[in-house]
Amino acid sequence: MIEFVKGNVVEVNPEYIVLDHHGMGYLIHTPNPYIYDVSNREIIIYTYQHVREDVLALYGFPSRKDRTLFTRLLNVTGIGPKGALAILAFGRLEQVVGAIEGENEAFLIKFPGVGKKTARQIILDLKGKVADLIETGFVHADKIDPTIMVGNPSLDALNEAVEALKVLGYAEREIRKILPLLESERLTTDQYIKKALQHLVQGK
């Protein structure tokens, strides 16, 4: 297994990034590719190699804790890599863990592909097994009110964010419903995605 890849990002798109490591380009699927920028700055991405008969894919995360939650989600019946990525893309590890430990099905079913049955299975399989990912203990999903800082505007940022949300599995009708809440903002792609996920998952 590849523990991590160190290099610089040479491509970012809604589904994956490409990391240049000594002249070799690694295509890495990530929960939110737009947390990364194309630059010469060297970064570390913690990876998970997913192997099936017809698939060989590399998934990457900014921390080992994110990767651990991803791999534990993969062990839940009904959750595949795409579903696990959508949950990780929310970017609030404490809230996801809090929802599992607090048996908050209503929070979990907001993610694409997670119905009541799958939400219940996540809780049954992972309750008591993910609290260790949060150093100071878990926080219930309804106790956090995250804010988004306004960054440099980009004319294409909102369109890129919409495409990234589609890749994560959100339906076009769901995205259209929250677009009016985003169109007046001047944010980066990453910030648009995070704010959209707040509205989609938390209804805020």
From TrEMBL:
Task: Cite the Helix-hairpin-helix DNA-binding motif class domain residue spans from the record.
Answer: 71-90, 106-125
Question: InterPro entries recorded for this chain?
Answer: DNA_helicase_Holl-junc_RuvA_I (IPR013849), Hlx-hairpin-Hlx_DNA-bd_motif (IPR003583), NA-bd_OB-fold (IPR012340), RuvA (IPR000085), RuvA_2-like (IPR010994), RuvA_C (IPR011114), RuvA_C_sf (IPR036267)
Tell me the keywords, alphabetical order: Cytoplasm, DNA damage, DNA recombination, DNA repair, DNA-binding, Hydrolase
Which molecular function GO terms apply here? DNA helicase activity; hydrolase activity
Q: Where is this region: Domain II?
A: 63-140
The positions making up the signal sequence are none
Domain III: annotated span? 153-204
Intracellular or extracellular location(s): Cytoplasm
Identify the main location. cytoplasm
Please give the HAMAP family that the UniProt record associates with this protein: DNA_HJ_migration_RuvA
Record remark: domains: Has three domains with a flexible linker between the domains II and III and assumes an 'L' shape. Domain III is highly mobile and contacts RuvB.
Function comment: The RuvA-RuvB-RuvC complex processes Holliday junction (HJ) DNA during genetic recombination and DNA repair, while the RuvA-RuvB complex plays an important role in the rescue of blocked DNA replication forks via replication fork reversal (RFR). RuvA specifically binds to HJ cruciform DNA, conferring on it an open structure. The RuvB hexamer acts as an ATP-dependent pump, pulling dsDNA into and through the RuvAB complex. HJ branch migration allows RuvC to scan DNA until it finds its consensus sequence, where it cleaves and resolves the cruciform DNA.
**Whom does it interact with, and what assembly results?**
Homotetramer. Forms an RuvA(8)-RuvB(12)-Holliday junction (HJ) complex. HJ DNA is sandwiched between 2 RuvA tetramers; dsDNA enters through RuvA and exits via RuvB. An RuvB hexamer assembles on each DNA strand where it exits the tetramer. Each RuvB hexamer is contacted by two RuvA subunits (via domain III) on 2 adjacent RuvB subunits; this complex drives branch migration. In the full resolvosome a probable DNA-RuvA(4)-RuvB(12)-RuvC(2) complex forms which resolves the HJ.
Q: Which family does it belong to?
A: Belongs to the RuvA family.
- Protein name per Swiss-Prot or TrEMBL: Holliday junction branch migration complex subunit RuvA
